[in-house]
Specification:
The chain is mainly alpha-helical. The protein is 75% helix and 0% strand. It has one domain. The chain has three helices and no strands.
Length: 75
């Protein structure tokens, strides 16, 4: 396993730690960016058409069904 990764045996825990920290920082940056966009949209108080309110739930449902169908077809 160690030879497959290409790291010395004693460097693997540190590499995993920094990888996980990097993933978490990326997630926090994404949440900060999304929250900023939502706050800006609320501050501008633009009139939204009714269909625009339906985009997030349909996007989430579409992604969920994609994953369900993908997993079911793997059997």
């Amino acid at each position: 396993m160690v030879a497959e990764v290409g790291l010395p045996h004693n460097a693997i825990p540190l590499a995993l730690l920094f990888f996980n920290v990097g993933v978490e920082i990326g997630q926090l940056l994404f949440i900060a960016a999304a929250s900023s966009v939502i706050a800006l949209a609320r501050r501008l108080r633009l009139p939204w058409p009714r269909w625009a309110e339906l985009i997030p739930p349909y996007a989430i449902g579409g992604a969920a069904m994609f994953w369900v169908i993908q997993r079911i077809s793997a059997f």
